[in-house]
Amino acid sequence: MRYPIMFMLVAVSFFTVAQTKTTEALDKKYSSRTFFLYHNTLRMVNQSENAAFDELIKDIEKMKVVWVNKKEKNFTNDNFKKLISDYRSESFEEIMNSRHEGRNFNVLMKEKNGKTLGMLAIVNDTESVYVLDIVGSIALNNVMELFKTLDSSADIGERIKTIANKSEKKAEQ
């Protein structure tokens, strides 16, 4: 009798930290590249021991990054509007919109009893859509900094791109 209860507890805890259904659907239908980053992986790529980066990632348990090449995958503005609507239907609330260097940033958050269950940072430009589906949280004023670091930091960004490319090549074999 103990085992079914333990199984249910493990299953419930797994589902509370799973990525969103909308991100999974986006990944299956439109993804050009997808990879996961766990807290330990993020810390590992920080070989220069950048204290600011450690502070950025301190409350992130894991992050799924989905990149969509809009032209290659025929991802339109209507698809983007539906994506945002689908996240809202999963009880995510849009908490910030911003524009920076030609990119639009939408940040959505899901809370329960004052605890952040997940965050989404959606970056949309003329060529691509990036979804950072975060289990855990990041301070709102640091969302763009996290994306910039992942996207272009000479040290951290390049290490993450190397990990992502290795994962992609392994999956193709």
In summary, what is this structure?
This is DUF4252 domain-containing protein. This protein has helices spanning 2-16, 21-30, 39-45, 51-57, 70-73, 77-89, 143-152, 156-172; strands at 33-38, 60-69, 93-100, 103-112, 115-124, 128-136.
Helix content: 40-55%
Low-confidence stretches: 1-17, 167-173
Strand % is 25-35%
Measure the end-to-end span: 43 Å
How much is the average pLDDT? 78
Major pleated sheet: 6 strands, antiparallel
Strand order of the largest sheet: 1-2-6-5-4-3
* Tertiary shape: globular
Structural class comes to alpha+beta
Number of separate structural domains: 1
Run of helices and strands: HHEHHEHHEEEEHH
Describe it for me?
Pfam families: DUF4252. Keywords: Signal. This is DUF4252 domain-containing protein. InterPro entries: DUF4252 (IPR025348). It comes from Pseudochryseolinea flava. The chain has a 6-stranded antiparallel sheet with strand order 1-2-6-5-4-3, with helices on both faces. The protein has one domain. It is of the alpha+beta class. It has helices spanning about 1-15, 20-30, 40-45, 50-55, 70-75, 75-90, 145-150, 155-170; strands at about 35-40, 60-70, 95-100, 105-110, 115-125, 130-135. It is globular and about 40 Å long. Mean pLDDT is about 80; it is low at about 1-15 and about 165-173. Helix 7 (about 145-150) crosses helix 8 (about 155-170). It contains 8 helices and 6 strands, in the order H-H-E-H-H-E-H-H-E-E-E-E-H-H. Strand 5 (about 115-125) and strand 6 form a beta hairpin.
